[in-house]
Design brief:
Order of helices and strands: EEEHEHEEEHHEHEHEHEHEHEHEHE
Radius of gyration: 20 Å
Length: 331
């Protein structure tokens, strides 16, 4: 099969096409002919040598795919409501930058009605991540306020749409007025240009001094103390990346007095059973919203798979709004 490999750790140009043996699905897995692969920040980190695949996962980058089921035990497939020839999207621990990919059946979801495979390839990584962290871990409820750092990212546009669909008020930060406008167009109630104003003070102003109930943070570092300051009492801060650094200095007394919760998680190394539970929640609670048109794909650009280096360059430029996708020949 054709695949995009990491020749050596480094700049986007180290991503090169190569031939790899076809993967063979194990028990509990199916084989997908990949039409499209989503591009995500963890792929960039892996390319740089900063995020190794978990034990047993493919060394190829790529955490989300969509395409056609072409292999797998038909009994296992039927038990999950699938059959050969169905179009699915899947969360994988690696191997997504390839024309064929084996995926756990429990981590697959049907391509939503009305969506193309290319559009569906934007769903798994961000939707699994946002659901697990904002709703399961963060406990966001209807009527509460969600603050999303990086609202124009793939995670951000997903959190905006899911937060609004679930009845929350959504505030986002972004690095330009244009990105802020894009976030509002997607449904955010408020967008803060963090380069122009103090986001923490602005969140307090927008909430009449109360603060946000949940903060979804991809920055960490010095942001953590500022995020705690603009959390409501009993608020929850969920950290999912550390783009701003791994060290933070906080006021622990404030955490005690206002009953604040700080938590974090990474999804890639979690077991199949954990991810299967998220998939079941998405299929039950979110897929009907997608198929009703309440959640829409947000794609900045689709690249041919052979142009993966250019896709990574765009990702690192942070000039995109929404998702970046690789398309495989014949899709």
């Amino acid at each position: 099969m054709r695949a995009i490999t990491i020749r050596e750790f480094g700049a986007p140009e180290v991503l090169v096409e190569a031939e790899r043996p076809d993967p063979q699905p194990a028990a509990g897995e199916l084989l997908i002919r990949v039409a499209a692969s989503g591009v995500n920040r963890p792929d960039v980190l892996q390319r740089k040598g900063a995020y190794a695949p978990p034990p047993g996962a493919s060394d190829l980058p790529g955490l989300e795919i969509a395409g056609t089921i072409i292999g797998g035990d038909v009994v296992e497939l039927a038990a999950a409501g699938f059959k050969l020839g169905d179009h699915v999207c899947a969360l994988v621990a690696g191997g997504g930058y390839a024309a064929l990919c084996a995926a756990p059946i429990a981590q697959c979801l049907p391509v939503p009605a009305g969506w193309s495979d290319t559009e569906a390839a934007t769903l798994p990584e961000t939707f699994f991540t946002v659901w697990s962290n904002v709703f399961d871990r963060g406990g966001l409820k209807a009527g509460e306020t969600l603050l999303v750092q990086g609202g124009s990212s793939g995670i951000g546009v997903t959190a905006i749409q899911l937060g609004k669909a679930m009845g929350a008020t959504v505030i986002v930060t972004a690095g330009s007025d244009e990105k802020c406008a894009a976030c509002v167009a997607l449904g955010a109630d408020h967008a803060i240009n963090y380069r122009a104003v103090d986001f923490a003070a602005e969140v307090k102003r927008l909430t009449d001094g109360r603060g946000a109930d949940v903060v979804l943070d991809m920055v960490a570092g010095e942001y953590v103390a500022r995020e705690l300051s603009c959390l409501a009492d009993d608020g929850r801060l969920v950290i999912i990346a550390v783009q701003g650094g791994v060290k933070s200095e906080i006021n622990a007394g404030e955490v005690l007095r206002r009953r604040l919760t700080i938590s974090g998680s990474t999804l890639r190394p979690r077991p199949v059973a954990f991810k299967a539970a998220i998939a079941a929640s998405l299929r039950d609670k979110v897929w009907p919203l997608i198929e009703a048109g309440r959640i829409k794909p947000v794609i900045e650009r689709v690249f041919d798979a052979a142009d993966a280096a250019a896709a990574h360059a765009l990702m690192e430029s942070s000039q995109h709004v929404g998702k970046i996708v690789l398309r495989w020949p014949g899709a």
